[in-house]
Records
---
Amino acid sequence: MRDMEIDTKALLNAAESQAGWITTELRRLVEVESPSDDKAAIDAAAALVAGFSETCGGRVKLHKQKHFGNVLEARFGPARGGRKPILLLGHLDTVWPLGTLRTMPWREAGGRFFGPGVLDMKAGVAMALAAIRILRELNISRPVTLLLNSDEEVGSPVSRPITERLALASEAVLVLEPAQGLACKTARKGVGDYRLHVTGIAAHSGVDFAHGHSAILELARLIEKVAGFTDLRVGRTVNPGVISGGTRSNVIAEHAYADVDVRIARASDAAKVDKLFRGLRCDDPACKLEITGGLNRPPMERKPGTVALYKRSRKLAAELGFTLDEAATGGGSDGNFTAALGVPTLDGLGAVGEGAHAAHESVVIEHLVPRTALLAALIASI
């Protein structure tokens, strides 16, 4: 990474001139609903952002997907040159089903913008494009790649290889996810999902009780063991979040399952956690246990490359007139993948707000301009 003098005042003035554009295009993007499970809806959002990108001088490529929305890649700045690009990383999918706008419409109230996906993370997309517009307006030339995935909210099953390939070709990765309060994110936990499926022997609970072997009882014993895998000293949490089993109260259950969420702070813990799950056994020898799943996002650990990006950002933020703290979070993002590859990654550079995945999802308007200026300054300084 290089060090250069950045005219933060000029960047802030330029960002202020983009405020109306950010509002207009953010509203347009929010009003194109894009749930993860609706390919046509996400493709419509991608087409909208592709149009924004092309007006900003971007060279757009759509990575076509069969069962998920298309992944949008847009490149800005010099097409050729010796410098690696900065990767701006985000996603277009949301957790909100089609029709949510009827009960949760775009609106402005109390210094905030409200709407499905406005915080997580369509505001970050609008801010990234505004930052690119600012750099172009000020004739600051820097190769930038904008990658917007279509499946982040469901684990990034198709976009992960694209993200990792582009990250390895980049100087650094700036993730457009929402801030943690007012702070950026220098660490995220890794995320895993396990399923325990117990098969027992069904029988009539009144007539033939002795011949039954309950999958529900066996699963209950296993859940107690699994809950004991939590170790807060090392930042590991294990949560059996969904259980199901049985058919009727007068039938000894033949099947039962539990879905378990796992969070780890360090990559070195992944193998230990997996060994704990794979070592589970049924106490009742007549019952059988099947274990599926595993870690699907490695942790984003606070490593030197990320720390250097944070320190640079903190200095630029101070010049822009605000304090930028850092935070760690238990949630995962696509930044987990890039950080695990050793590429310097800084997360939480999107909007400030609250209520992600909740009915009061909103962004605080006053932070949009200065944080857009920070994003532009950070791109220019790397």
---
Amino acid sequence: MDISRVLLKQAQERLAYSPGLVLLGPRQVGKTTLAKAIALQHPGALHLDLQLESDRAKLSEASGFLAAHRDRLLVLDEVQFVPELFAQLRPEIDANRKAGRFLLLGSASGQLLQQSSESLAGRVSYLELTPFQAREVMTEQGSSDLDILQRLWLRGGFPLSFTAANDEQSFSWRQDFIATFLNRDLRQFGLNLPAQTMQRFWRMTAHLHGQLFNASQIAASLGGLSHTTVSRYLDTMTDTLMLRRLEPHFVNLGKRLVKSPKVYVRDSGLLHALLNINDINTLAGHPGAGASWEGLVVEQICALAPPGADIGFYRTAAGTELDVVVAWGNRTVGFEIKFSAAPKVTRGFWQACADINADAAYIVAPVAQGWALKTETAYPVSVVSMLELGAVFQA
């Protein structure tokens, strides 16, 4: 199945004016495939896989190697394995700030961003390649597209999982991915954490998917670990792009607001593998189906939101809540996520919209096509489908 990545055009645009581009994304998400597509637009591009000792050896005298290839695009794959390279890239970019010189691919975000920002501030651009988005696999509005959306929801967006021949192969691939990530990838990232404990932590976050994160409670369930250790586990899984930590959106209203983050397993397919959900019938009848759908929509919103947007959730101690709040420029938009073809909202939704002073509000539901709600509010309120989310941020 040939699926075009929407990030391709954006990456090409960034390389047209920036000396370098850092492309972040989890393992097996398609970064190398995308990089090869970009390289086709740059004749003579050179690709180095820094997991390979032979390719790392080429950078043993990095300053000379980089200077000798100033006339071609250098694709440096899995750059987190050579963190010292960033210090070498800074003077090289300063010596020749021609656009489109470096494409850096990395599988971890937090530590990698810190290293690169210290050395390459103002010299490179950043993009994150996510698992497949709905707009990449769904071609048009219509009932048949809901079948594709259902497959995306069940299997998740990792290319080899989504395009597997059947659900059994997809489920098996995801189980293998989880095992490999815990037993090999974490150690390759330089994180010497116990695989069995990390697996228990990951499964626990899957059961708490979309709920407030309570480090002390999870620590007690993991056998008396400290809450600081559990917080470190969360940081690790967030940095490796496996979990999303959604922070609360604060407004100055004098109300008691929830301060703890909500945590999601970023890929719905991995969530279902952790929960042992292997087919759509099991998923539909699972008590966590609504939370799973919410996580899928949250990821779509985060991928579609404008660069630099503030993305969070709103909840007061009294229970007034919006699942997602996105603020950018002078606009603030609220989202309520419902796993229903005929969604209804409560009084708390309207109060939350008033609290955040929303410019618009949307109820995201598994429908083929959305509709506007008739309200007396000064701002528009609509039910929207997954494919219609993109238009929200273009308004």
